[in-house]
Amino acid sequence: MAARGFRAFARGTVRRGTFLRRLNRFVLEAETEGVVVAAHLPNPGRLWEILFPGTELALVPTPQSPKLSFKVAAARRNGRWVNLDTIRTNALARSLLEEGRIPGLAGWEVLSSEVPHNDSRFDFLLGRGTDRLFLEVKSCTLFQGPMSMFPDAVTERGRRHLLELAALGPGEPGGAVLVVSQGPESRFFLPDYHTDRAFAEAFLETRGRVGVHAVSVGWGEDLSLAEEVRPLEVPWDVLARTDFDAGAWIALLGGEEAGLETPYAAAAGVEHSGLDRACRALARHFGPSLLKVLPVRGYRGGLDRLEEALSASADRGTVSSGKDGVPMFGFSRHPLQDPLFVDTLLDFRLILQPLGKMP
Q1: Is 98 in contact with 4 (CB distance < 8 Å)?
Q2: Domain 86-241 in this protein, CATH class
């Protein structure tokens, strides 16, 4: 199928639904036409910025499945559809390659897919004359403003792929990665060093030995591919100068365990060095009330700016000075289920830290 006629689902009729909750990495619960159903989620990422209760979903019936009657094709974010099917992203990558619409990969032909090599399996083997190239495709759903990042969860498999592509020897095909971002407004791509420091370090280490190609795409209301396929710039200088072990942390707390009057709370701190060590120490500091620690690696701003942003996103305001006088900001629901908090987190991680400014 030509990319210009490409849709975010292969066959069937889309039914609209709303997200209720995630049951596990690959199954979610949704409501459609007044009925609560379990649906296959073909994306194991965290998807914090997308799957909020009430988020609109595009569901495709799967009558061939004995257990799950629907598959999630896409979810709506900021008024636009985001493709959540990683398999369809690979199919899209093939179509774009065949049409020569990937900058830097024009002229390469898809020879085969799911190609085994040593202990790995790469998405495509490309050919151009006598040249050969292994290509690994990454589906990127994490974006904010002009920035896209991958991955949104730790990926040891992704790190291993980078190192194995970089280690290809003489007489073997070359190696490259294609990132397909679902953020049509994006202009830049970086590895998400906040979430997966090891992947980002491998990304930087293999520069020049592994080709990196990144594009962004968008989808129409009928889930057809938008016309523009935008190439994304990789700001290598930003990545190289970012200190991954310095920056800020945001601790999410269970209010009852923390002795607060609110169900949940958030606190923040800034570390000029030893950020990972400080994040580990928070488990001892806050004890069982600690739910999660979110690092903002490389952040050089003041703590006051971070706390001001947390205060603005908290629906219960400042609720306690906490241990050692650290202000805590109250939430009536888990902060990662609160769109305003997640938006604040993304602003700091994807815009303020790497680009040095807020939107």
Answers
A1: no
A2: alpha beta
